[in-house]
Design goal:
about 375 residues; mainly alpha; 3 strands; globular
């Protein structure tokens, strides 16, 4: 029944995205391996590709398994998982390992665990469940829904800012506003939330050093700041455009060797150098196609929880992809945001697979459920 109920077109598009990601990581792996090699330790050129292949082999079965989970079990699992991830975020300042001045990971020995990646899909499903309660009990005031979900989002945002992780904070807040809008919040409240968001960004600029440094280096780069803070985005843009429309060819890129984090945050630029701007445009179109496919499936959705959960999950997917591509093209300051299903990373790949598995579960439809038994179809004879 799963094969007939699941959105096979959506599943195929996601698998295509994962395949593109493997090719992209293979292209970026030699540059990253050289960057992290030294006289005492030589990283094999294809080290990150083989690691990513392992993560994909683990993630795809997880995605398929999660897509088979019944609705009630998916909701309960998301609530429990979100609670565990928030607990890990609280413990991160004490047990987290520091990388490039940020404590976002827990060292497990064989790999690093990033709780915020796993929290995103689980938190979205949890917020969707809270907001869907009003569909079953109209007496629940929207102000209560706003207060409860807003408080939870503010708690997560505070924990993320402590890491610091400004990019993930923006994703959580944007998706929360989208869910509140779909839940039926009034335009006046939406305007108020927008004002609060603007005030939050201004406050972050005034009192949050990480945000101020990133914004200053992006909007008003001095010569010294450009060398220190603006280097990554400049190199990303240079790498992206150096291949022209059709690219230099697989393995022929040279600018990528100067690019920091070529296999994660800036893998979109590596694709541009080796496969061309046309390939980058095709990937962007594939992301848009996935988003539109989900939204079209939700047009006639009657279950409030499924509608909110699927909308939130696809919004998170789209916002994350947009931010990463905006950074790579020089339209936004560096955020440390991976490109969904394409960038290297175990936590990112498994967490995205869980989120996409939930999305596939929430968009499953029984094609025979609403078919009338009285409908007469011409047999052709």
């Amino acid at each position: 029944m799963w094969f007939w109920e699941v959105d096979r077109v959506l599943l195929l598009m996601v698998l295509l995205l994962i395949a593109i990601g493997l090719v992209a990581v293979a292209a970026a792996s030699p540059a990253t391996a050289r960057r992290y090699s030294d006289g005492a330790h030589i990283v094999p050129p294809m080290f990150y590709f083989w690691r990513q292949l392992i993560w994909v082999a683990l993630s795809v079965p997880i995605m398929v398994f999660v897509s088979m989970v019944p609705l009630t079990l998916a909701r309960r699992g998301a609530l429990i998982g979100a609670g565990i991830c928030i607990g890990l975020l609280i413990l991160l300042p004490f047990i987290g390992s520091e990388v490039n001045g940020a404590k976002r990971w827990i060292d497990l020995g064989i790999s690093d665990l990033q709780p915020s990646e796993f929290l995103k899909p689980l938190f979205i499903v949890s917020i969707a469940w809270i907001l869907s309660l009003r569909a079953t009990d109209a007496q629940l005031p929207m102000t209560l829904m706003l207060g409860v979900t807003g408080g939870l989002t503010a708690l997560v945002a505070l924990l993320l800012m402590m890491q610091p992780d400004f990019g993930q904070t923006m994703v959580f807040c944007i998706v929360w506003i989208i869910l509140m809008t779909v839940a039926g919040i009034s335009p006046a409240v939406i305007g108020g939330l927008t004002g609060i968001g603007v005030a939050g960004i201004v406050s972050a600029y005034l009192f949050y050093d990480t945000a101020r440094i990133r914004i200053d280096s992006f909007l008003w780069p001095t010569k010294e700041k450009a060398l220190a803070e603006h280097y990554q985005t400049n190199m990303a843009e240079q790498t992206l455009t150096s291949g022209g429309l059709f690219g230099t060819g697989p393995g022929s890129g040279q600018v990528k060797f100067k690019l920091p984090e070529a296999h994660t945050d800036y893998i979109f630029s590596v694709i541009g150098e080796e496969f061309g701007l046309i390939a980058c445009a095709a990937i962007a179109v594939l992301y848009v196609a996935i988003i539109l496919r989900v939204l079209l499936k939700l047009i006639d959705e009657e279950d409030a929880f499924k509608l909110l959960a699927a909308t939130g999950l696809v919004a998170q997917f789209g916002v994350q992809a947009f931010i990463n591509m905006a950074v790579n093209t020089g339209l936004a300051p560096s955020k440390g945001m991976t490109l969904p299903f394409i960038s290297y990373g175990g936590s990112s790949m498994i967490a995205l697979s869980i989120g996409m598995g939930l999305l596939l579960a929430f968009t499953r439809r029984n094609p025979y459920l609403k078919r009338s038994p009285y409908t007469v179809r011409w047999s052709g004879t």
